[in-house]
Amino acid sequence: MPHAIILRHHGAPEMLRLEEIAVGAPGPGEIRLRQTAIGVNFHDCYVRSGLYRTLSLPGIPGIEGAGVVEAVGPGVAGFAPGDRVAYVTAQYGCYASERVLPASLALKLPDGVSELLAASVLLKGLTAGMLVRDVHPVRPGETVLVQAAAGGVGRLLCQWAAHLGATVIGTAGSPAKAAIARAAGCAHVILYREEDFVARVMQVTGGRGVAVAYDSVGRDTFDGSLECLALRGHLVNFGQSSGPVAPFAIPRLSARSNSLTRPMLFHYTAERPALEAMAAALFGVLASGAVRADPGRTLPLAEAAEAHRLLESRAAEAPLVLVP
Asked: Per the confidence metrics, is the pTM higher than 0.85?
């Protein structure tokens, strides 16, 4: 019998409970997927806690998964039973052993990418590619700042930016995470608990600041990231692991003609050609070795609550993947 994690009430990780579900046949334009790996992301934690009220309750959380096609619905072309696919979705439903999915979201996996790796890297990798190729196209010779450089997106982002010719400054919270950031391509790593990262960035850049600051931390680092920008520098806030950013006065940007962006991946992948191009770019840098990704640590689907605890405690040094 198929089963899934059902969230009936917002709150602590204990709200995530395994229940049996019914999964029907795929309709027009849909595929039925037997899931073999499910990515765990901070977005899931925000949904569970109620910080994001984007999942109707009761509901099945999760926005990233991979598996094997079991059946295709009427009108579906390009997919057949047995195909290995991965996907991200804004419609949730990933924390399940089986599901029906719009075929327009599915991406066939290259031979060199396992379902486990895909579930641990697809959302983060598409996000990193969006940040360095679309939101602020990184150019050779630029200096960039990556907050939380040892995090899931951070380590991919640092590698990709360095591959594009940027000098990457990363922040980290411990010597162990600093080592991860250096291995991910950071030319300079700042232990933000031990030193003023703004002062250090200015020292590294000779007082010029950075062309772009990529900030997924939010409340705790937003103001500092803004202070680190060079003239016409770009602050990209793409997460809020420390909490939401307070209301922002736009005239603050005029001090150095700065710009501010708050991108959402699903807006960049809304059109199928864009999604396919972004996935091809990600699979390309993975295949070339320019970006390396850890397939992550696996936990049974029934232990989704423990996965959330690990993620929120910052105790997970590798991506977390649920396995049905």
From this structure: yes
